[in-house]
Amino acid sequence: MSEVVEFSAIRAAEMKESFNRLLERLRAQSKITLLDEEGLESFVMAGGDGMVLFTQEPDQQPETWDVAVILPEVLKLTGDRLRAAIITPELARQEKARYGITRWPSLVFVRDGGYVGVIDGMRNWDEYTREIAAMLDKPIGRAPSVGIPVMSTGEASACH
Fold first, then answer.
1. 10, 57, 94, 130: most buried, per Cβ within 10 A?
2. Could you give the CA distance from residue 82 to residue 68 in angstroms, rounded to a whole number?
3. CATH of the domain at 87
4. Predicted confidence (pLDDT) per residue in 49-80, tens digit
């Protein structure tokens, strides 16, 4: 293994460990929950407004750090109305199609078991406050999950 590749692997592992410590600190110092697969389902189905941070590996997507750090401020902005959670990069990749995630990191908003919307990527604070307020007023809708076109075999398509 070359020195550059070895250094990259070590640096990625260090960043992942540091990010995990940040997540633990957020959990310990705020009302932010770290979720596994079962926890995610329970969180989504719970009553009220919820927001889930879909993370990505911090060495691959540094914006993940930035969004995680501002989550306590987002909670302060919304008072007690919003529950917040974070899921690991592995679970986020597994669940991204369900919520139509195409960009990392993403904040997925849910209410009473339904999908409300997503804010993807990093924003400046004014944009966040505006978009989060809109999410809290937005009705539940259908998640923009990846669709698969359905066609019957042996028949010509009528979609032309």
1. 57
2. 15
3. 3.40.30.10
4. 999 999 998 888 989 989 999 999 999 999 88
